[in-house]
Amino acid sequence: MEITEEQYARIKDSLPVQRGNVSLTNLQVLNAILYVAEQGCKWRGLPKRFGPWHTIYMRMNRWAKNGVLDRVFEQLQLEQIVRVRIEAFSLDSTSVKVHPDGTQRFIWLPRMLERL
User: Of 81, 34, 84, which Cα lies nearest the Cα of 60?
Assistant: First the structure.
């Protein structure tokens, strides 16, 4: 699942303006995020054609914290480019042991509903 330049032009206002010397465009990062969402792979499992996985992950993490991902996915659905359902799970270590330190863990888990 990758969006085209034409589809990107319809949603680019939802993304922050790129400044400075960036190695990956917002379109490249968005396509990598959609790939992870569709394939369910780990970030380290991203094909090399998307660029450095760590760069993509760091930008995705920043977008998620700033609400950019919510806006982008909402715009993708409004423009009928792709249908995505975001599910977030919170695992509490008091009831489910997930890690020895006992802190809560949050998992961002997008699910592709269908390709349009």
Answer: 34
Amino acid at residue number 70: D
pTM over 0.85: no
Backbone angles phi, psi at 22, to 5 degrees: -110, 140
End-to-end Cα spacing for the chain? 10
Instruction: Note down pLDDT in tens along the chain; length 116 residues.
Output: 788 999 999 988 889 888 877 889 999 999 999 899 888 888 999 999 999 999 999 999 999 999 998 888 888 888 888 765 655 555 555 555 555 555 555 555 566 555 55
Q: Could you tell me where the DSSP H helices lie in the chain?
A: 5-11, 26-39, 53-66, 68-78
**Cβ-proximal residues to 53 (8 Å cutoff; 6+ apart), any chain:** 32, 43, 44, 45, 46
102, 93 contact by CB (below 8 A): yes
Instruction: Say how many C-beta atoms besides its own lie within 10 A of residue 39's C-beta.
Output: 13
